[in-house]
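Format notes (please read before filing issues)

Several people have asked whether sequences and structure tokens are stored in separate files. They are not. Every record keeps both together, in the order shown below: the sequence lines, then the token lines. Line labels are part of the format and must not be stripped during preprocessing.
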Amino acid sequence: MRAAWYEKQGSAREVLIVGEMPDPNPAPGEVRIRIAASGINPGDVKKRQNTFGYGMAYPRVIPHSDGAGRVDRVGSGVSSEWIGRSVWCFGAQSYRPFGTAAEFTVVPMDQVAPLAENVSLDQGACLGIPGITAHQAVHVGGAVRGRTVLVQGAAGAVGQCAVQLARFAGARVIGTVRSSSEEATARSAGAHEVLRNDQEMKERVTALAPQGIDHIVEVAFAANIEVDVELLGMGGSIATYATDSESPKIPFWQMVFKNIRLFFLGSDDFAKETKMSAARDLNGALAAGWSGFEITERVPLTDIARAHELVEHPPRPGRVVITL
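Then the structure lines:
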């Protein structure tokens, strides 16, 4: 099969190789997917760059955890009815060496979700990491039906999913964006209200939710924590999956007096049942009419280094996928 891989970490053009490898075969409980589209997430880039200093977990890594295609072979214990079905997968390169940047990938059956025929494979390839992270970020603090959820960074990949999943679950959703150019994206994701994250944002949120926000999904923990705490009502909660500073300060006593709960989320380490529940709700949101992401770049596998550079320095908003 054709595949892209790296055997050392570094810049995309220095370490990514495209070549031939033996076709993989599914082990018991696994399926093999003929990949049509491979999604690229910031985490895939950070692993290749060794951003967190963990080094090479495996001698050779085929990158990307998310992808979509059709099942073409199944391992023992998996029904043959899956063969030929359109699916999306997640976690292909989470604690595993070989991801979806290849003609074939094999993953355990519990990391595969069916993809409706009216949903493009490009969309399916983008769902995994942002969708599962967003689902946990929305639900980790408890049921959100009838509650007010604030999604910071509502135009980002996780933010869009969080907006849609919170609305799908029956919440009133307020989204924040960095600029007016992102407002349409947040509204398309399902936000009831969209606000610029500027000096007037706090007053506007307070006017919309005078009793306080019930739950916040946070993308820039260090930058926003003080405002978040002011906006939360008594017993509110924050779920954060990213920060702009590695060692943020927190307003401890204000959080204590409001009985605020704080959740830190790393999607690779969510429980299996959590990921499967997220996959079901993501499919449910798509079936209910969510249009998904804007795909701005479709890049062939042979040009994977350029695709990684587009994720590192995006010229415009939207998702980048590798096509096979």
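For reference, the curators noted about this record: Residues 110 and 272 are 8 Å apart (CA to CA). The longest strand covers residues 30-39.
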